[in-house]
Amino acid sequence: MIRISIPSILTISAGFALPATAQNSACETLNEKPNIVLIYADDIGYGDLSCYGAERVQTPHVDALAANGVCFRNAHSTAATSTPSRYGLLTGEYPWRRKGTQVAAGDAALIIKPNRYTVPKMLKEAGYTTAAVGKWHLGIGEITGEQDWNGHLTPGPREIGFDYSYIMAATGDRVPCVYLENQRVVNLDPTDPISVSYLKNFPGEPTGKDNPELLTKLKPSPNHGHDQSIVNGISRIGYMKGGRAALWEDESIADSITAHAVQFIERNKEKPFFLYFGTNDIHVPRFPHERFRGKTEMGHRGDAIVQFDWSVGEIVRALKEAGVFESTLIILTSDNGPVVDDGYMDEAVEKLMDHKPWGPFRGGKYSTFEAGTRIPFIVHFPGKVKNGVSDALLSQIDLFATLAALTGANENLPIPEDSRNQLPAWLGIDPLGREYVIGAASSLTILTRDWKYIEPNNGRPYNKLTNTELGNRPVDQLYDMRSDRGEYDNVAEQNSLMVRFLKQLLEEEKSKGIGLEL
């Protein structure tokens, strides 16, 4: 480790170790195992919720959790895209350590291997009943492209620790567009089997590219590639045929997954449970139910945020009706930053007006800039948290170790070194949180409470399709986050010692785990 004795660097490590009294205080607040509900939104940015400053859209159910919990302003996903963030969340290991954790295709094999120790496995050992409901996007089956969609798909959620699952087979804009309940396609007619290909279309099957007249609900944005098989009047990525009785309707996805999450709560209210509720909102294709359309002036994207808030309200209502709201920890966050046009002509760009999904930050989904990974993060735990707003530095990588501490799990559990117990910060006791977090897009980044360093990268600096600044430059980037939240003033040359310090710290992190198998 390089030892640099200057005040600006000493401030990085000041306060790293939380006093034992604060750790003890966090533990003393917990008398029994609470239920745990993790609400994991999709593509909702830091500025998309009214409790984070949005004015063009109102999210009263989310706001109520924030007002009666801890609302974090410096929390981060582990990556700027969906699949790697979910991998890091459930394994406690940074996704950039592993090959094959990039955005998963619709026919990807299960990315988290069955022998992997995971958050749901840890909670099952602690006496919890576990469920995964909603957006999955972590692959399923043993071999990519060789799944039998007409039988029992394995390995899947059960093999990594979930007792029950009701999930979307892949993600909203990719085939197959069906639900899986306990790893079988829901409502499948055996006389109409499903076939899926990401290589070529099936003879006679229409596509958005060749049959635009069949696109009755949404049309793809030019050059994004969402112009292949048509399901529910919307074209997707990939090709499929069959399974017509099992196909979802996009406008009913929120209703379906929310209903199954509520049913899980009702069935398991007498014992500790862990519910991983991944919403499809507000990922593309955005086509909210008609009862939410027109609720904002921002078209489908704004209305999908309102639909997401409704889902949150239904989860809270179910907890209250089951009599377990007061004994339930709710964590609400998002998988990555926002994107406006991500493949469909839904007027999200035209109707954005002065709404800023990225808040006061730069970039968004796919970006190394701050809005790529700085996301909403709310912890609600009645009678246990110190309500308010916190600037503690958090990462979703710490879900594993923090929930292990929360539930009193054995200290000898094989929790990955990347994941650290941040329970005092979650409860509002520790105002500082982590010493640093690492983010991943096309480059790795390291963020302290004061500074942000971005590795050099020769990739394109701008994504024209999504209108996103990716933050890629062939030189070191250093930003003083105390005064430059927009990351416009690269001060690397003026602060060479800080650059050396953060590069060394990042190199030490990268050296851990070399040679590990996926």
What coarse outline follows from CA principal-axis ratios? globular
Instruction: From the alpha carbons, calculate the radius of gyration and give it in angstroms.
Output: 22 Å
Largest sheet: 10 strands, mixed
What percentage of residues falls in helices of 4 or more residues? 10-25%
Question: CATH H level of the domain at 11-127 and 294-426: which superfamily?
Answer: Alkaline Phosphatase, subunit A
Spans of at least 5 consecutive residues whose pLDDT stays below 50 are 1-20, 514-518
Instruction: Tell me how many strands there are.
Output: 22
User: Mean of the pLDDT scores?
Assistant: 93
- Might you state the CATH topology name of the domain at 11-127 and 294-426? Alkaline Phosphatase, subunit A
Number of helices: 10
**What is the CATH class name of the domain at 11-127 and 294-426?**
Alpha Beta
Strand order of the largest sheet: 7-6-5-4-12-1-13-14-2-15
Name the beta content range: 15-25%
Please name the CATH architecture of the domain at 11-127 and 294-426: 3-Layer(aba) Sandwich
> Based on helices, strands and strand pairing, what is the structural class?
alpha/beta
First-last Cα distance: 28 Å
